[in-house]
Here is the input.
Amino acid sequence: DADALVVRSKTRVNRDLLAGSSVSFVGTATAGYDHFDTDWLSAEGIAWSAAAGCNANSVAEYVTAALLCLAQRHAFRLEGLTLGVIGVGQVGRRVVRKAAALGLRVLQNDPPRRIAEGAPELIALEEVLAGADILTMHVPLTDSGPFATRRMADARLMERLKPGAIFINASRGEVVDEEDLRMALESGQIAHAVLDVWDDEPRWNAGLMALCDLGTPHIAGYSYDGKLEGTAMIYREACRFFEVAPTWDPASRRPPAPVPEIRLEPGGREDESVLWDVVRRVYDIEADDRALREGPARESERAERFDRLRKNYPDRREFPNTTIRLVGPAPSLQRKLEGLGFRVTPAG
Here is the structure.
């Protein structure tokens, strides 16, 4: 007898679920909606809504943490390298801004936006692949049209990257051909990989994980702030649809940040080393990797663990919730910290 249904990213909303029900509004408190059969919903007159952009900053912070982690782990500098961003929507735009704060040169590819807007910074895929030292995927999952994304990251794409490139996927697992990525890692065509999403979730490829630097259980967008904003967006849409006044205040649900303040003394260290120390205190991406990597060996148990890690994910707060008390003048470091979203003030 429900009038509305609200889900997150794993509930398939289609004829099998809703045929014959009283549901007239469906919302997903996530940015993506490929788990919705939108054609069927529209044909049935069922309104639907997704929370576009709700977790975009969370994903961009995940990519930031991954980049800094790889640079420190493998002793290279990000500044001066070239980052290719495939898909420059809500997430991709934020990744571009944070990458610029890190001193990365950025190449952007988004054919649908290029056609719609004619933005000159959006260039051909071939140019991005030829120039990128690092490639990060932020595309929706689509199966049709001239720019379908399912399995777009395949052997042909990887062969066009610079040898020894870095590959990151925090969009949808199905946009990557996992077997082709495995072979590219084994051959050294791709030197390092970071995967937050997997082709057959909650089952995930343990053999591929063993070759990746970082692998996580689809939690890049799982900051507390992102999840709360997704819920709030769908709540407001439901209120609008049913023509009732909103009464719930999402701000009342925000707990104190686990790391509200960091007193920072750079001490003459390189900016990237300091940035990594700050970022991992606020978001420890390596802990998320360990939580998945060190799980059980049996596939069925690994799938259960994947789901359990997502359902019981700790309250990760986004960078703007932490204030950096900076000791001494460090204008370059301050600009980078602010560019990543931290609040920065002089230490008292």
